[in-house]
Specification:
Elements lengths: L1 E3 H21 L8 H25 L4 E4 L2 E4 H35 L7 H26 L16 E3 L5 H27 L5 H37 L6 H4 L2 H18 L3 H5 L19 H6 L1
Antiparallel strand pairs: 1-4, 2-3
C-alpha cells in the first residue's frame, strides 16, 4: 500500500516518542531483563532511522549527506521497507528469548549475576539478534523492495508492507497458552480426589494463583486486548514499520509473566517468597494467600 512520506515520518516520530517514554517509565529496571534491553535497542534504531530522514524530507533539495552518505527519498522508502521486514521477522525470536529469560528468572534455574554482567549479556544477545535477522532478510528471505520509477525529488509516496500476521500469531499463541494453562490447572484441581489434605490444599493454592494471575493481567491490559481484537478484524492491519514497538513489548512482557506463573511456577514458591517475578511496570504481581494455605505450604 502507498503511504505519503509525511504520514510515514509522523508515524515514526510518534513511535519514537512512545518508545522513549516507556523506556524512561521503566528506567529503574529496564536493564534487568532481555525485553528491557531489547526495548532500548529498538528505540535507538527507530530514532536513528527517523531523525536523518525527517531532515531529508524537510530539505528543499530532497537530499542530505549523513555520515558521508548521500541520502535521498529513495533511501527513505527503501529503509522503511527493510526495517518493516526486519521488525516482522523479529517477532517470534524476541518472544522465545524473552520467555526463556523469564522462565529462568521465575524458576531460578541460573545463578543470579551482577546487574552489569546481566546487562552486557542482554546487550550482546540483542545486537546478535539484530545482526542475524538482517542476514536472514538479505541472504535467505525472498524480500524484494518496491520502488517507484521516478526521480528522487518527485517521490511523495512510499510503498509500505502490512505483514501483521506475525503480530497476530504471537498474540494468539500466548493468549491461548494462558488460557490452556488456566484450564489445565482448573481441570486438575476439579477432578482431583480430596483424600489427602495437603494435596487438596496445594491444588487449591495453584488454582488461586492462576485465578489471580489472569485477573491481574486482564485488569491491566483489557483495553489493549480489545485493540488487538479490532486489529484481527481489519482487512489491512498496521504498517510493518510500526508493528514492533516498546508498547507491544510491554504487553508481551506481562503476558509471558502471566503464562509462566500459571504454567511453571508452583504456588508454594510464591507463598514462601522463593519465586522472583520479573519486573513489570504495568502489572503489579502481588498474590494473596490465606494463612492456612501458607502454613500448609
Amino acid at each position: 500500500m502507498n503511504i505519503s512520506i509525511p504520514s510515514i515520518l509522523l508515524g515514526l516520530g510518534g513511535k519514537c516518542l512512545l518508545n522513549w517514554w516507556l523506556v524512561f517509565l521503566q528506567r529503574n529496571h529496564v536493564c534487568q531483563s532481555f525485553l528491557g534491553v531489547f526495548s532500548i535497542s529498538l528505540a535507538v534504531v527507530d530514532t536513528t532511522l527517523t531523525l536523518p530522514f525527517t531532515a531529508l524530507h524537510l530539505h528543499k533539495d530532497g537530499l542530505v549527506y549523513f555520515l558521508g552518505l548521500k541520502l535521498t527519498r529513495y533511501h527513505l522508502c527503501l529503509m522503511v521497507q527493510i526495517l518493516g521486514q526486519i521488525y516482522s521477522f523479529l517477532q517470534w525470536p524476541v518472544v522465545v528469548l524473552a520467555g526463556l529469560d523469564h522462565f529462568f528468572t521465575l524458576t531460578r534455574r541460573l545463578q543470579p549475576t551482577k546487574a552489569r554482567a546481566r546487562w552486557m549479556v542482554y546487550s550482546c544477545v540483542s545486537g546478535f539478534l539484530w545482526y542475524l535477522t538482517a542476514l536472514y532478510l538479505f541472504l535467505l528471505s525472498d524480500f524484494t523492495p518496491v520502488l517507484e520509477d521516478l526521480t528522487y525529488d518527485q517521490i511523495v509516496w512510499c510503498w509500505v508492507f502490512f505483514p501483521t500476521a506475525q503480530i497476530q500469531q504471537a498474540a494468539m499463541f500466548l493468549l491461548l497458552a494462558l488460557g490452556c494453562a488456566a484450564l489445565h490447572t482448573g481441570y486438575r484441581t476439579w477432578f482431583v480426589r480430596e483424600q489427602i489434605t495437603d494435596l487438596s490444599s496445594r491444588n487449591h493454592s495453584e488454582r488461586n494463583v492462576v485465578h489471580q494471575a489472569v485477573c491481574i493481567f486482564l485488569n491491566t491490559w483489557v483495553l489493549f486486548l480489545c485493540f488487538l481484537a479490532v486489529l484481527l478484524l481489519l482487512p489491512v492491519g498496521i504498517p510493518a514499520y510500526l508493528g514492533l514497538n516498546v508498547a507491544w513489548l510491554c504487553f508481551i512482557n506481562s503476558l509471558l509473566i502471566a503464562v509462566l506463573l500459571c504454567a511453571a511456577c508452583p504456588a508454594s514458591q510464591l507463598a514462601q517468597g522463593l519465586a522472583l517475578v520479573p519486573a513489570d511496570s504495568f502489572c503489579e504481581w502481588r498474590f494473596k494467600f490465606s494463612s492456612a494455605a501458607e502454613d500448609r505450604t
